[in-house]
Each structure stands twice: as structure tokens, then as C-alpha cells.
Amino acid sequence: MNLRKLCCIAASLGLLQSCIKDAPTNPEADITTFAVPKNQLTGDVFIDQTKRQVRLYLTDSAFKNGIVPTISVSNGAKVFPASGDTLRFDSTGTTQYTVTPATGGKGKIYTVRVVGTGNWKFGFERWDTVSSEGASWKYVNPLADDGRNLWASGNIGIAITGVTEINDFPLHVSSDAHDGKYAAVMETKPGNALSGWMGIHLFAGSLFMGNFVTDYLLENPLKCTQFGQPYRGMPQRFTGYYKYQPGAQFQGKDGKPVPGVTDECSIYAVLYSGTSRLDATNILTSDRVIATAILTDGSAKADWTHFDIPFQNLSGKVVNMGEQVMLAIIASSSKDGDHYRGAVGSKLVLDNIEIVNE
Amino acid sequence: MQLMNIKISGLMLGMLMATTQLFAQDNGQGQTKTDDFKPMLEHRILAGFNFGATAPVGLPNTIRKINGYWPEFSPSLGYELSYRATRKWGAAVAVKLDYKGMGTKDEVQYFPTIITTDDGGRFEGDFTGKNQTTVRNAYVSFPISAVFTPNDRWRFNLGGYVAWLFSSNFYGTVSDGYIRNGGSLGEKIIITEATFDFGTEVRSFDCGLQGGAAYRVGKRLSIDGNLNWGLRPIFPGDFKGMSFPMYNIYLTLGVAYKI
């Protein structure tokens, strides 16, 4: 070996750094937006990337006449039926959009669901098992008694941190029911190593009416919980049954025990104006809030306890004629769970809830 | 991995045997020429810096752009014992304290990663965005070489090395992008900035090929350049934080002082 050869080797070492290959073809196959004119909507369109559903909240006339959605997809991907094609709703109100990625490989099939705002009585008798192709996790989510997807929880966020078993998720199904076979149970769970990296040492059990977006999971988890579904009229009362057992040891955001504090549950409903959803950062503070119904007693209840809370309008706020409003129901096994404070083991069981209209 | 170890040890054994055979031949020649050369031991102090990269051999297409590269402070200090069997041929073994480090800034697209945690947690996803990585690993390494000394000025060596890790750093940030849970069809999670630290995952044993040249500039002092090419990926096979194997590829530039 001579010096020249050595220099060649040294030079090739440098070259390794400079050989950038051709860009990989985009393997993504998202419907990124599904735009419908605002005057045809009672609530913003929601694209559930986990269940691969496009949820539409439509006015009666839009439902009757069909809509012409403008669809955008991942770069280079193709969607069928195409953007701009009229979408009419058959008797089940369901149709499918197929997105093929630029790579031509496996794509995604999105199902369109028109979410009606029917009755607001929930017995938590129907549950849906949610998973993803090839994923090791599985969790459950309640459906409305007629199968509508109105409810969500933080479970998908927790699945992403590596929790896999149905009963290890904070929200799952309980066979201890007030009425019927099942009820919803929320249980505050300890965080894990991955969530610890994000500074989260506790997963409060939550169940809320609305949708969960994963986009902000790392950036601002409180923005992931999109509270509310379209509502008509002015709700009068929020009623239901619950049981609550606070966990033994309250802990702060840092995961360290805080002596002398007992965890409390929270159950409340919020009516607000508009069609875009409020989230955990502003659900009680937004100036769009019209009325609230908040359970004030969050203490332990060993037996089924009935609650019946009248909605209270914020001063000067009413529902104006023709105004689009949304209603959110939010429940958590730890009242400060949105700030990652609570007691591991706190357990809230909820059943037979209802929004009583005028 | 076991197989690889065997392969590498086999390779090094082969090189050693080749060296000894060369000695044998040369010794024979020496005798016939009735050379007055007497075999001797030499001692050298080696000092220098490592420049290079802990990098894949050939960049995968998920790496779109390299926005920056800088060598970390990576000193190399050691002692070499060589046996000069004939005027031209010999063998050397050294013990070195080797820091191998660098930093890069790059942009990646659909970069698969799997993060596992001590409590059994696991996150798998494809990341698109910016990445900044700092590597600084310290090894005690034992290079072993055949040495060729054609004349008074030049000295060449070629061989292999084994190295044990005693301190490791492999950390960085990902930013301005998103990760998709489970793969390219999964849920999107925006990442403004997040940190990672794979320091504890770095393998404790490294080995590879090394070779170089020294040019004598003073009575005892030589300028020394030596390339160390790791053949064992620095992360174990079951580590999936990086989807490709990465190797220690460093050039030591420094001096050798004969004592």
C-alpha cells in the first residue's frame, strides 16, 4: 500500500457523506382535508386517521341533496372517487374513498360517516374495539346506542406510548352497570417510560364527546381532545349515574406524592357556539361558551349515585335563532388529569347519562 | 452477531498468520544475504485526533440532506510496541485511548425508527423532519498490525483492531417534522422538538480494520495517519432506533514519537 492508496481511502470516506440518493417515493396515503362548504355543516368535518373515517356533521338539506367535497391527499397520492365528485348518501349514509400512495403500494380506505344528532341518551351498551393494521394495541370506545361515533377518549394517545391491552387503558368497559349490561369505567393509570420522556407520569381516565387528534400529542396534548358534537336547541339538564373511588396516593405533575390531597372526579357538560371544536385548553374559558352543567361534588361514591344538573347560562349568553351550537360532555377519573395530577387507581364508573332538552 | 465475531476473529487470525509467514520468508532472505540487521523491539507514543464519522456505509435514501457536519473533540492517545523482525518487516501491537465522535445535522424523510424502553414500552414510527445527532464514544482499543518499513522515512502498517467501549454518547434532537405511529400509514404526530438518547444502546465491543502510514520528520518524531474502519455496527441487531447499521469510520491524524 502506498500513500496514494491511503489518500484514496480517505477521500472515499469523505464521499460517503455526499452521496445523497434519490428521494424515496411518498408512501403516505392520507386524506388530509375533506372540505365541505361551511353552510352545509353543523360541525367541522373530522378525519379519524386511526379508524380511517371521515365524519360529517351535515345540515338536513346537505344530507338530502348530497355534497361536493374538495379532497386533498398526501403528496403524489390518488383518491377515488375523485375530489369534486358529488357524494350522495344512500340509506346507510356511508361510502368509501380509496387513497393510493405515490408508491403504488398499500393505501388506505376511508369510510365516510354522516353523524346525525339524534337523541342524547347514552347507556354505554355498545362498544367498538379500535386497533390499527399490524398494531399490537387494542382498546375499546363506546358508541351511541344507534352506533354513532360520538365519543372519544385519550386511549389512542396512550396506545402510542406503548400500552397494548384493553384493560390497561384508562377507559374501558365495565360490567358493573347501573342499567343494562355495561357502563363506562375510567381509571387513572400510571405513566410509562415513554410518557415520562414527555413529562407525563399519569394517565387520567377520560371519556368525552368529540374526537381525538394525534397531531398535537407531543406539542400540546391538551389540544388533542376536540370536545363537542353539533347540538340543536337549548339543553336544560344533564343527568346520569356514577360511582367513584379515589386512588390512594395523590401525585403531582412531577410524579411525586402530594400528601393530604384526595383525588376527585369531574363530570360536566358545556354548550358553546360555532362549528369548530373547543379543546382542553379552552373548553371552559372560551368566550364562545354559552352554558355549563358541572358536577360540583367529585368525592367518593361507593354506590350508584344519581346526578341531575341544570345548565346554567353564562351571563348574557343565550342560543340565538339559527345559531349553530355544539355540546360537549366530559368526564374524568381525576379532576386535574389534564395537568397530569391525580391518584393512580382513581376509578369513575359512568352510566345512563342524558342531556334533557327543553 | 456471534457469527460475525467469529468471522472477524478469523480474519484477524488470518492477517497475523500472513504476517508471520512474511517474517519467515524475509528472515530466510536475510540469512542468505548475511544482513547485519538484528531484530529489535521499538516503542512509540502515539498522539492525535480522530476525524471521521459514525455512519452508515452508503447513505440510505431516507437521509435527504446533510446540513452540517463537525468533528467532536476526539483525542487519541496510545502506546505502541513493535517488533522489527527484519529491516523491512515487523509487527506491532498498541493500546490506545480513542475518542470517536462527530456531530451532524440532517434532514430525513420517512425515516423508520423503533424506540424501546426499559419498562417494555415500544414506539415504532416513521419520522420526517430535521435531525441533529452528536456521537462521542470512548474506546480502549488494541490495534494489531503488520509493519512495512521500506526506507528511513516511511513506515506503513496494516491490520485490525479490537476495542472496548468505556463511555458512550449518542444523543440529539428531532425537530420541525412529524412522526407516523406504526409506519407511513399511521397517525401523524407533529414534532416541534424532541430529544433522543441512545447512548446506553451502543455496543461495548467494536472491531475492524486499520491501516496507515507514518512519515519521519525528526530523529524520533513521525507524522502519522491511520484509518480505522469499524466492521461491527455500533448498535446491536435488535436495536431499531436507526434503521441501518452504523460503523465507526475514523482517520487518526497525529504524531508518533519513538522512545
What does this structure look like?
The complex is a heterodimer of chains A (358) and B (259). Chain A is mainly beta. Chain A has 2 domains: 25-116, Immunoglobulin-like (Sandwich); 119-357, BT2081, beta-jelly-roll domain (Jelly Rolls, Sandwich), CATH 2.60.120.890. Helices cover 9% and strands 40% of the residues of chain A. Chain A contains 4 helices and 28 strands. Chain A has helices spanning 3-18, 60-65, 155-160, 193-197; strands spanning 31-35, 41-48, 53-58, 70-73, 78-80, 94-100, 108-114, 121-122, 126-130, 139-143, 151-152, 171-174, 183-187, 189-190, 202-203, 206-212, 225-227, 229-231, 235-245, 250-251, 266-273, 278-279, 289-294, 301-310, 312-313, 325-332, 342-343, 347-357. The longest helix of chain A is centred in the N-terminal third of the chain and has 16 residues, at 3-18. Chain A is globular and about 65 Å long. Chain A starts with a helix and ends with a strand. Residues 1-8 and 10-32 of chain B have low confidence and may be disordered. Chain B is built from 1 helix and 11 strands. The radius of gyration of chain B is 22 Å and the shape is elongated. Chain B has one helix at residues 2-33; strands spanning 40-55, 63-71, 75-84, 89-116, 122-148, 154-167, 170-181, 188-197, 205-216, 221-230, 247-258. Chain B has one domain (2-258). Chain B has 259 residues and is mainly β. Classes of the chains: A mainly beta (358), B mainly beta (259). Chains A and B meet through helix 1 and helix 4 of A and strand 1, strand 2, strand 4, strand 5 and strand 6 of B.
